[in-house]
Every structure is written in structure tokens, then in C-alpha cells.
Amino acid sequence: MKWQALLTKRSERKKEKLRQKNAKLRAQGKDPLKGWNTMVDSGYGGMNTHTSKLDTTPFLLEEQNRIKKTNDKE
Predict the structure, then answer these.
(1) Residue 6 and which of 12, 23, 46, 61 are 20 to 30 A apart at CA?
(2) In which domain of life is the source organism classified (predicted)?
(3) Is the pTM here over 0.70, yes or no?
(4) Cα distance between residue 44 and residue 73, in whole Å
(5) DSSP letter string over 1-61?
């Protein structure tokens, strides 16, 4: 019972800290649940299952830059 109370108390502190952070973001006019952007679609589905190493870094950088530019316009 002692551990359960400790874990519950720690969980409640964490929840309250997150509520305060979200309230601060909402006061700034931001949506805390939005996230930074959509996921990048590299076109390489199932990359983790392949053993060959593909260098997709340039593609991912270009995709992130494109997404950043569209977000900056908004």
C-alpha cells in the first residue's frame, strides 16, 4: 500500500505539471496537442525490416525543409 500511494502521488504531480505547461501554451495561443508537424513520408515503407543500409538523409532534410517553409507561411 505504501508503494501504491507513492506512485499515485508521483503520477498526480506529473499530471499537474503537464496541466500547467498546457495552460501556459494555451495562454500563448498555441495548441499543446497539435505537435510540431505531420510525419515525413520517405516513401521507403518497412525500412526497419531491410538489412541493406540506405542513406535517406538528404531526402529527409529536403522534406523537413519543405514542411518548415509551408508552416512558416501560415
Answers:
(1) 23
(2) Bacteria
(3) no
(4) 28
(5) -HHHHHHHHHHHHHHHHHHHHHHHHHHTT--TTS-S-PPP--S-TTGGG--S----HHHHH
